[in-house]
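User: Predict the full complex structure for these chains.
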Amino acid sequence: MSDAQPASGERYRRGLAQLEKMGGESVQSMLGNIQDLSPDLARITVEFPYGDILSRPGLDLRSRQIATVAALTALGNAPVQLRAHIDMALAVGCTEEEIKEVIIQMAVYAGFPAALNGMAAALEVFSAREKRGV
Amino acid sequence: MSDAQPASGERYRRGLAQLEKMGGESVQSMLGNIQDLSPDLARITVEFPYGDILSRPGLDLRSRQIATVAALTALGNAPVQLRAHIDMALAVGCTEEEIKEVIIQMAVYAGFPAALNGMAAALEVFSAREKRGV
Amino acid sequence: MSDAQPASGERYRRGLAQLEKMGGESVQSMLGNIQDLSPDLARITVEFPYGDILSRPGLDLRSRQIATVAALTALGNAPVQLRAHIDMALAVGCTEEEIKEVIIQMAVYAGFPAALNGMAAALEVFSAREKRGV
Amino acid sequence: MSDAQPASGERYRRGLAQLEKMGGESVQSMLGNIQDLSPDLARITVEFPYGDILSRPGLDLRSRQIATVAALTALGNAPVQLRAHIDMALAVGCTEEEIKEVIIQMAVYAGFPAALNGMAAALEVFSAREKRGV
Amino acid sequence: MSDAQPASGERYRRGLAQLEKMGGESVQSMLGNIQDLSPDLARITVEFPYGDILSRPGLDLRSRQIATVAALTALGNAPVQLRAHIDMALAVGCTEEEIKEVIIQMAVYAGFPAALNGMAAALEVFSAREKRGV
Amino acid sequence: MSDAQPASGERYRRGLAQLEKMGGESVQSMLGNIQDLSPDLARITVEFPYGDILSRPGLDLRSRQIATVAALTALGNAPVQLRAHIDMALAVGCTEEEIKEVIIQMAVYAGFPAALNGMAAALEVFSAREKRGV
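Assistant: Here is the predicted structure of the six-chain assembly.
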C-alpha cells in the first residue's frame, strides 16, 4: 500500500515544473528506470529535491547547480547523478569552462581521483550534447 | 631536509595574495597551528589551493566559495575548514541567506545529518562575526 | 523571505507526532539549536524525515531505527545524530544488546574505527539514560 | 606462505553454515572470483563476518540484513555486495516492500543519490530472482 | 549472553602479543573505555585486527603502519584511532618525517582538509610523546 | 584562456620524470582521456602529485605506493586510479604478496566490501601484467 500514493499533489506539480525549468530530462530518464519498482521513490524525488528545495528562492539556479556539481564530484559515489547535474548546470547557464573549473577545484578539497573522475563525467556529458547538437 | 624549502617563490606570493583577497584570515590561523610541525604542508597549502587553483580565471570567487562550502558540507569530515570557507564566502560577497541555501540543499545530496552539521558550522561563523562586529 | 514559511502544515504536524511517537526529544533539542538561524531547515527536518519518510507504513519503527543506527555508525560523520537515534531506537523497543550487535556488525561493513566510535556513542547514550533514570 | 592456511577450522565451518542459512549463494560466487588470487581473503571473509559476527546471538537475522542493506546503501561504495545482501535479506524473511522502505529511508541519512542507486540495485536483484523463478 | 565469551583463546593471546610488539598502549587505553559496555567488541578488536591480520607474515610492520596511517588520514572519520596508529608507527620504526610525508601525500588522494587534519593529529601525538619523554 | 598554460615548466618536467621513474604508463593513459577536454587538469596532475609531492625526499617510493594503495582501497571511490597505483607499486618494487596484504589489512579499517573490491582490482592488474608478459 505504501507504494501507492498518487503523484498529483501541489509539491509534485511544483517539482515537475522545476525539473523542466532546469532542463532535467536526464533526471526524469533516471527516474523512469525505478518508476515501476518504486513509484513512491520516483514521486518523492520530484517532490522533495525539486518541489521543496531547488525551487526555493534565496539562491539562483546557476549557483545551485555549481553547488551540486561540486558536492557530487567530491562525494564520488553517484556518477549517473553527477552527469545529470552537469547537464542541468549547462541548461541553467553555466559555461563548460565554469563546470571544468568547479571540477578542477575539487582536487583541492576531495583529492585528484575525485577531480579526474568528475572530469571524465563532464567529458561524457559534453560529447553527448555535441552529438545531440545542443 | 624535505621540510626546508623556502616559502618565497612566485606561487607562494600569488597564493598569499589570493588568500588576502578572499579574506582568508581563518585559513592562515589554521595554517599557523601546523607551521612549526610541517612548514612544507603550510607552504604547499598556500601554493597549490590558493596560488594555483583558486586564483585561476574562468570562475568568479563567489561561485568558487559556493562550490567549496557545498563540498565540505557534503563530505562532512572537515568542520574547521568548513567554518573557514563559510567565513571566506561571506568575505567575497555571498550573503548569509545564500550560504544557508547551499547548506540546506546538501540535505538532498548528502543527507540531513550533513546539512544539520553544516548549519551548526554556519551558526558558529555568523555568531563569531557578529561578536567581531563584521 | 525564504526562511519564513509557517511551520504549521499537515506534514509538519504529522512529523511532530511521529517524533513524539519515536521518543525524539534529542532530535528536537538538536533542532532547537538551529531554529533561530534557519527556521526553514528546522521545519523541513520535521516535515521530510519524520512527516514524509519515517511515518510511512511498510516497515516497523524498530527496524527503521536499526537501519538508521547502522547507517550513521557506518558513515561516521554525524555523532550527534547517531546518539539521538540510539536513544530513539531504545524508545521504540530495541534492547541495548540489539543496538550493540548492530554496531559490532558495522565492523564488517565499514571497519573497526567506525564500530568503535559507534560503541563510544552508545556508551554515552546508555550512561545518560541511566542518570535520567530511564 | 601467508596465503596458505587451510580453510578447515571451526570458524570456517561455522561461517559456511551461516552463509548457507542466510542464502548467501551470491556471496560465495563473489568469493569464487578472488579465491585463486587470495585464498586467504576468501577464507577470512567466511570466518570473520559469517563465522564470528553474523552468527552471534543477540540480534535476529532479518534485523541483521536490514542493518547491512542500510549501511551499504548509505556508504554507496560496494554495489556488488549491496546486491548480494538484498538477496540475502529476502532469503531470511524480509519482504521486497521492507527492503524498498529501508532504501527510501536512506535518502534522509545519506542523500537521494545513495537511495536512487540503492533502488537500482534492488531492481536488479528482484528481476534476477523473478527470472530464476524464486 | 552474547557478550560473555572468555577473552582467553589463542587468537586473543596472539592479538595481545601483537599489540605489545607494536607499542599499542593507546589502542589498549581506547579499548578500556568500551570494555565495560561491550567486552565482546573489545575482545574482537584484539582478536581480529591484531591476532588475525596485523600478525600475518607477508608485510613488515613499518609498511603496515604506513598503510593504516594513510587510510585513516584519507578516510578522516576516526581521529582517535589515527592518533593511536601514528603512535604505533613511531613505535615500529617510522620516523616523524616519514609520517609527515605520508600525511602530506594524502592531500593528493583525499584532499587538503584530510591532510591538514592528519597533520594536526600528528602534532598532538608528537607533542604528547615529547612530554612523556619518548 | 584558463585552459591554455603551456605544459613545459620545471614542475611539469620533474613530474613527467617522476611518472616515468614510477612506471606510470597507466596514469598517462588515464590522463590522455581528459587531455583534450582539460589540458589544464592533465598538466596539473603531472605537476602537483608527481612534480611536487611524490618526488619529495623523506619517504621511499615503495612506501609511497603502499600508502596510496591503502588509501584508495579504503576510500573505494576510484577503481581506475587504484588499478594504476597497484601497477606502479609493482613497478617500484612491491611484491604481489605485499600488495595483497595491504588490501587485506583494509578490511580492518574500511570494512570487507572495500577490501574485496580492492582485491578484485589487484586481480585485474595482475592478470593484465601476465598477458603483457611483465
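The interface with chain B takes residues 2-3, 30, 33-34, 37-38, 40-41, 44-45, 48-49, 72, 75, 77-78, 80-81 of chain C (CB under 8 Å).
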